[in-house]
Design goal:
The protein has 566 residues and is an alpha+beta fold. 15% of the residues lie in helices and 41% in strands. The chain has one domain: Porin (Beta Barrel). The chain has an 18-stranded antiparallel β-barrel, surrounded by 4 helices. A two-stranded antiparallel ribbon has the order 1-9. It has a two-stranded antiparallel sheet with strand order 3-4. The longest helix has 20 residues, at 8-27.
């Protein structure tokens, strides 16, 4: 939905432009290459860090990382692209050589399909375990919560303090253990079923909230040339943010939906070719029943373009509508709300939407500096940004931006990252129960409404493909929403005070590689030690010292995919 407070011309222009562009992408654009079996890479895979590093060092031409996850076959194509650019480089980076070597081991099968031209001629296959991971999580300290009172507004809670964007995996205070495993199967060279499951929680007692066993990813994917149509649960991450995502993130458990997206970037025909490389994703799904408007519908689209090697631009749009007590519409009314062309009225069939734009610039001559900015508007008429909201096709504007310097030192082994987020008081909130959560966890930025966050991180690659980093962060949350109305005293007490926090974290990441004792398996690992002092946590009088210890080891087994001709 485009906000009811926007001008009619702005609303129509936004909807027509979005629909026209998406129609061109889906209906006219030629496929880049056959994709065969499409298997998406879980968002916690170290492959994303490797691809981001290769892109930052200048070895990838058309990697558009603002839409995740990507597929294994796309990662294999990017690996070969990086390898070609590495061979053409006058002074190749040692780090890039190591990254490519590791990716070739992890994606050996898919790289072989591309090299031998058998991507779209595969036998039936099954790979029961592509990667397994064992985690230990120690957590202590108060959890943040959001409760605006009544049936509408916002009702959500934090999963694990200092460990957001973890697919909503539940943990308890104290020691927790988690086991993850992912696998896939393919049939007929065009259909795959894949999934990732996790068993998590304190081993010595039953979890008090949530289930111990959860399916993070569970999807069937039909590949039609360069277009993948899927149904099930799939992680999503939209936008330029590194420490958080304004629009869609994996802070909450993935919700069931149908999706269509292109597997590899495409070039649009005619004059649209000047938009450069393009990726898109569109989805239509349904949320949980634990709200007054139970099981509302949700759909969204993201379009990302790379017109030049040093510039990216993208557009996001999502809409939530329907649900019990909010479905007073006909079939044309349903379609109008789903497309955003006819959103109806708040009486009996309300809607809530988000729409945004992001820009990303590369400066190769400034040590490969990246600068990015994202703006997201949310449809909520309780509060309008003075002087801005009436000129935009949405209200309640939030901001996120920053820079990334991958060559803080000339050798490319030390990097610097800065990011900020300013979240408007109506971010994720709606007067009706159309607030942006799934299973009581925020679907976008984990800080929630009326908050500010600043992150500064310095990282260094050590011998053995291990990256260590230190991170300093500051957050602030104000106890208000809408027209600066305090959260109900019945929920938070009578003395509501602005919340402040400052924290520090130390991270280590080890890229997958062979070990003598691993018998051909690839071993990776990560660790995180974080401390945060929160003053007036949850707007009350109390303060909290929050602590997190994360130790993780992953294994990619050497087992070959089992294949048979049908």
């Amino acid at each position: 939905m485009i906000a009811a407070g926007a001008t009619p011309d702005a609303q129509r222009a936004f909807r027509i432009a979005a629909a026209f562009t998406l129609a061109i992408v889906i209906g006219v654009a030629p496929p880049a290459m056959a994709s065969g079996y499409v298997v998406y890479i879980p968002l916690d895979s170290p492959m994303y860090e490797q691809l981001d590093t290769l892109n930052a060092l200048g070895y990838l031409d058309d990697y558009i990382d603002e839409i995740k996850p990507i597929s294994r076959i796309e990662a294999a194509r990017l690996t070969l692209e990086a390898r070609r650019n590495l061979h053409e480089s006058n002074a190749p980076d040692t780090l890039a050589i190591q990254m490519i070597a590791s990716l070739k081991l992890q994606l050996a099968e898919e790289i072989g399909w591309i090299r031998h031209g058998t991507v779209d001629d595969r036998p039936a296959s099954i790979h029961p375990v592509t990667r397994a991971e064992a985690d230990y999580v120690f957590s202590r300290g108060a959890s943040r919560m959001w409760d605006t009172g009544g049936r509408g507004g916002l009702h959500a809670s934090e999963g694990t303090p200092l460990l957001p964007y973890n697919d909503g995996v539940p943990t308890e205070a104290g020691s927790n253990e988690a086991l993850r495993s992912s696998g896939w199967a393919g049939f007929g060279s065009f259909f795959t079923a894949y999934g990732e499951a996790v068993v998590a929680g304190p081993m010595t007692r039953e979890p008090t909230s949530g289930s111990r066993v959860n399916a993070i990813d569970a999807e069937g994917v039909l590949d039609l040339g360069n277009f993948a149509i899927s149904a099930g649960q799939e992680e999503m991450w939209w936008g330029t943010g590194h420490f958080g995502a304004l629009s869609q993130s994996d802070n909450a458990t993935p919700f069931p939906a149908g999706r269509i997206q292109n597997v590899h970037p495409i070039i649009l025909p005619w004059i649209f070719k000047y938009l450069g490389q393009c990726r898109f994703q569109a989805f239509f799904g349904q949320l949980e029943g634990d709200r007054y408007f139970s099981h509302p519908w949700i759909d969204g689209e993201i379009l990302a373009f790379k017109p030049t090697p040093n510039f990216e631009i993208g557009f996001t749009h999502t809409i939530m509508f329907g649900g019990t007590h909010n479905d007073n519409y006909s079939i044309p009314g349903f379609l109008g709300r789903a497309t955003g062309f006819a959103t109806g009225s708040p009486i009996g069939a309300n809607t809530n939407s988000r729409a945004g734009v992001y820009l990303k610039f590369y400066f190769p001559h400034l040590r490969n500096l990246q600068v990015y900015q994202e703006i997201l508007g949310e449809d909520n008429l309780n509060y309008e940004i003075p002087g801005v909201g009436r000129y935009l096709p949405f209200l309640a504007v939030s901001y996120q931006g920053g820079f990334y310097l991958p060559r803080l030192t000339l050798d490319g082994l030390t990097d610097l990252r800065f990011e900020y987020a300013i979240l408007e008081p109506n971010y994720s909130i709606h007067g009706d129960p159309l607030y942006w959560t799934y299973d009581a966890m925020l679907m976008g930025d984990a800080m929630g409404p009326n908050a500010t966050e600043v992150d500064l991180q310095v990282g260094r690659w050590l011998p053995g493909m291990t990256k260590v980093s230190s991170e300093l962060f500051y957050t602030e949350r104000a106890p208000s929403y809408g027209s600066n109305t305090p959260y109900p005293a019945s929920v938070y007490g009578t003395n509501l005070t602005k919340e402040h926090s400052v924290g520090i974290a130390f991270n280590a990441l080890r890229i997958p590689q062979l070990e003598r004792w691993s018998h051909g398996a690839l071993i990776d690992g990560r660790a995180r030690l974080a401390f945060e002092y929160v003053d007036h946590v949850n707007y009350g009088a109390a303060s909290s010292m929050r602590t997190l210890v994360l130790l993780s080891m992953g294994i990619t087994p050497p087992w070959k995919t089992q294949e048979w001709r049908q």
